[in-house]
Write a structure and sequence with these properties.
The complex is a heterodimer of chains A (about 90) and B (about 750). Chain A is built from two helices and seven strands, in the order ββααβββββ. With about 90 residues, chain A is of the alpha+beta class. Chain A has one domain: Ubiquitin-like (UB roll). In chain A, the strands form two sheets. A five-stranded mixed sheet of chain A has the order 2-1-7-5-6, covered by helices on one side. In chain A, a hairpin with a 2-residue loop joins β3 and β4. By secondary structure, chain B is of the alpha+beta class. In chain B, about 25% of the residues lie in helices and about 25% in strands. In chain B, the strands form eight sheets. A seven-stranded mixed sheet of chain B has the order 4-8-2-17-14-15-16, with helices on both faces. In chain B, α3 crosses α7. Classes of the chains: A alpha+beta (about 90), B alpha+beta (about 750). The interface between A and B is large, with 31 and 58 residues.
Chain lengths: ~90, ~750
């Protein structure tokens, strides 16, 4: 199952866990399944039906522009980080 | 310049052909924004705030409007009053309300130089004279200029609606702290218990400017049918289109942006300042074109510098030299509006190192200074100044060579960062090894008050969206249209990738930077992305051309396209063969013109590392620091055009040296900028710098067809730390404030 890495400010919702393994074939499904385990976390990551605009989603180390629609493999690692801009 | 690694396996890539824009640039024919002259064109000027923090009680433009030769006056009342809404813009996000308020202040001015009104007139002199007729009543408020004071709970508030945001949760009370972020791994207490040596230091840096040589400019033509044309100096023409559309509530399809040649940007020409004003003024001036240009003072007071900062960093290592723990607090200035770079600083701080126990807290803080903009590896230089001097001190206390200490702890493929994700193929260790083996590092430095410093740096690099299109000419050349503004030679680095793929000389490609109406969406030239991402678009375009040309060869030889081979620029089938040029000459008889295009959004922009070595001599009486020798080693993936890579490295180092030794925004007690000219804002000149030796390490990026990594940003990351470490070895003082100006060095030596 994919592993979702939990940003430090959200770990009060995951009993301190820095990563949680959940099922899901897309980032959306994984977040929804994470919400079942850790109520309240979806609202922190999403604004309505999309990832909050200032949060970047990385799947297997790469920024994904599909964000919530990105497909996941069984071994995928998902990170949520603050969007960083270059010059 | 030197390139380390195996012999070049390519014919075009890795060589240095004549740059396609070279003759135009050196003969003055290249057209910049200030060169625009249109029939009936008017000239604009902008009124800027004399206060750092004030409420605008009233604005009376009556006298200015009646002034002879004035055509229009605009204030924030001419702009849509936008609601707060964060929208994605390329690599980052912007709040369109704040962007609008930064273009023209609505109810409050938040920094010295904040634009309040703009005028169009028959001449610049008339426009400037009429500015003095605008009457504004202010309620002056106390300015907040220090990042730590601004973060205090009882500090005067810049924006009443701002609450501290923490990953989707907003605070309850107004605050100048717009954002708090945290990265955390392992057990920090255990990490420090395991340490044999602990170093804890505090660092401060001041705002510095990108310092591009060409000031901002923007000319706009608003047509009666609602169509808008903009000519400007920008890194991001599609971004200008989107921002103007958002701020003025005009459909993007009504706006066409022509990017002119650009005299530098470094991140400072992504946001808009003048373009919406030129559009507004054109509309209000009977649809005549209006041109606005900034003075150097305008650039310094009113366009995005990069954040000043306060950083507290504690790091520990065991007796073997292994890092055991790191704890950091980073507070970065936002300037007047949210949207900052502390995230970049957090990501750079410990990026080069494997470290199991760490906590990094980052804060974005509003202060009464210009809204910050990106500047080469935004946030990274401040962070590396702190981390790389503490690393140097730890290695010294443990008696380990500073490069060896970094090799002990250096990140490699598969290592997990503090923010959680793991590195793919990276070249940090190779870069360090090249530094260790360099003639510079192995040489002896002798003489009084001389010292050698080392520091390293990291930048993420970015991919993003890019488009390209190409058409084959019957003389065997290829016309290439691409959407990336050429700041650092990307016309040529892109043409070379097309040429390599097609098996033709780079000189046979005619690259053109297209306007937003002529090419598919392309993100700006930022994030060290153009050679990588637009390179991908060019590569895909070339492959598409090859497939189409195979079909033409098949028609010519009356075989199936699948029977055509293509290798080294030659199409063949059995004993028949035609070069690219020969086949191009037969397009008319095989079906007419051929063109291809591609739009991409590639993943895999591999990050880049750098290691810098610097020798300095410090005058013990004056504190002046002279750079004696500088070597910058950097992983470029595969250097497409090595001389350009070296230029990027040298440019980044030069800016980093300025940041390290002299550049700073100086404000008086009222928040007024005291050094808004290049006489007083001291950027380095040729006499301040030796020849900077660039050493290119090539650890190919598996995410790019030719292995390219972005190279433009990381070279500005290590210089202040490298110079601080050199100063320490020269005169025995650890510098913790930037710039390390003569006065600061003397002050530190007296302690």
């Amino acid at each position: 199952m994919p592993t979702l890495w939990i940003p430090a400010p959200l770990r009060d919702l995951t009993q301190g866990k820095s990563s949680v393994t959940v099922s899901g074939s897309t980032v959306r499904e994984a977040i929804e399944n994470l919400e079942v385990q850790c109520p309240g976390i979806k609202e922190r990551l999403c604004e309505g039906d999309r990832i909050r605009p200032n949060i970047s989603v990385l799947v297997d180390g790469h920024v994904t522009h599909l964000k919530i629609r990105e497909r996941l493999e069984e071994t995928s690692e998902v990170h949520f980080v603050i969007a960083i801009s270059g010059g | 310049m030197a390139t380390l690694d195996k012999p070049n396996e390519y014919k075009v890539i890795g060589t240095s052909p004549l740059r396609h824009d070279g003759v135009d640039k050196v003969t003055g024919r290249a057209a910049y924004g200030a060169d625009i002259r249109l029939p009936g064109m008017l000239y604009g000027a902008v009124l800027r705030s004399p206060h750092a923090h004030a409420r605008i009680l009233s604005i009376d433009t009556t006298k200015a409007e009646k002034f002879h030769g004035v055509h229009a006056v605009v204030t924030a009342s001419d702009l849509p009053d936008l609601e707060s809404k964060v929208v994605e813009l390329g690599e980052g996000v912007v709040n369109r309300k704040y962007q609008s308020n930064n273009v023209l202040a609505r109810d409050k001015v938040l920094y010295f130089g904040h634009a309040i009104a703009a005028i169009s007139a028959n001449s610049l002199n008339i426009a400037q004279e009429a500015l003095g007729l605008i009457q504004i009543e202010y309620e002056v408020l106390p300015p907040i200029m220090d990042v730590r004071q601004a973060a205090e709970p009882n500090a005067p508030i810049l924006l009443d609606e701002v609450r501290t945001e923490e990953f989707g949760k907003k605070g309850d009370v107004p605050s100048n702290v717009a954002g708090h972020y945290q990265d955390k791994c392992g057990d920090i207490e255990k990490g420090f218990k395991d340490a044999t040596v602990i170093v804890e230091r505090e660092f401060t840096t001041t705002m510095v400017h990108q310092g591009y040589i060409e000031p901002q400019n923007g000319t706009a033509q608003y047509n009666p049918d609602g169509q808008v044309t903009i000519w400007c100096s920008t890194q991001d023409p599609f971004g200008v289109r989107q921002q103007v559309a958002e701020i003025l509530e005009i459909p993007v399809s009504n706006i066409r942006v022509f990017p002119m040649e650009i005299g530098g940007g470094f991140g400072g020409k992504i946001g808009v300042y003048l373009e919406p004003l030129a559009v507004l003024l054109s509309r209000k001036s009977g649809y005549r074109p209006v041109k606005l240009t900034m003075s150097r003072a305008d650039v310094l007071t009113s366009t995005g510098p990069t954040s000043g900062s306060y950083i507290k960093l504690k790091m520990g290592a065991d007796a073997s030299g292994k890092l055991t723990a790191a704890q950091a607090t980073l507070m970065y200035e936002l300037g007047a509006y949210p949207g900052g770079s502390v995230g970049g600083g957090m990501g750079v701080l410990l990026a080069p190192y494997r470290i199991e126990n760490a906590v990094i807290d980052g804060y974005d803080v509003l202060v009464n200074k210009p809204k910050i903009a990106a500047y080469r590896a935004p946030g990274g230089t401040n962070a590396a100044f702190a981390a790389e001097t503490v690393i140097d001190e730890l290695s010294e206390k443990l008696g380990i060579d500073p490069i060896e200490f970094r090799l002990i702890n250096g990140s490699k493929e598969g290592d997990r960062r503090v923010d959680g994700f793991t590195y793919k193929r990276i070249g940090y260790l190779e870069t360090l090894q090249a530094a260790k083996e360099s003639e510079h590092y192995r040489s002896t430095l002798s003489g009084p008050h001389r010292g050698r410093g080392v520091a390293t740096g990291f930048w993420f690099n970015y991919g993003g969206k890019s488009s390209a299109s190409a058409s084959v000419n019957n003389d065997g050349t290829v016309s290439l249209l691409e959407g990336s503004v050429d700041i650092g030679g990307t016309r040529t680095s892109l043409a070379m990738q097309l040429a390599e793929t097609l098996g033709i000389p780079a000189e046979n490609v005619r690259p053109v930077v297209a306007d937003t109406g002529s090419i598919g969406y392309t993100e700006g030239t930022y994030g060290s992305r153009t050679t990588f991402a637009t390179g991908w678009a060019v590569y895909e375009t070339a492959n598409s051309l090859i497939e189409k040309l195979k079909e033409r060869a098949a028609i010519l030889w009356e075989v199936e396209a699948g029977q055509i081979q293509f290798e080294n620029g030659v199409f063949s089938s059995g004993d028949k063969a035609l070069t690219f040029k020969e086949l191009a000459s037969k397009l008319d008889e095989t079906g007419g013109p051929i063109m291809a295009s591609a739009s991409v959004q590639p993943k895999g922009a591999g990050p880049t590392f750098a290691a810098h070595i610097v020798d300095v001599e410090v005058d013990p009486d004056t504190g002046k620091v002279q750079i004696l020798r500088y070597t910058a080693i950097q992983d470029a993936g595969k250097a497409i055009y090595p001389a350009y890579v070296a230029s990027q490295i040298q440019g980044g180092v030069a800016q980093g040296v300025g940041w390290a030794l002299n550049e700073e925004y100086l404000y008086d007690e009222h928040g007024r900028l005291l050094n808004a000219s290049l006489l007083d804002y001291r950027m380095p000149v040729a006499l301040d710098l030796p020849m900077i030796d660039a050493v290119i390490v090539e650890v190919p990026n598996p995410g790019h067809p030719y292995g390219a990594r972005g190279v433009g940003e990381v070279p500005i990351v290590p210089p202040p730390a490298a110079i601080a470490n050199a100063i320490y070895r020269a005169v025995g003082v650890r510098m913790s404030k930037l710039p390390m100006s003569p006065a600061r060095v003397v002050e530190a030596m007296k302690k």
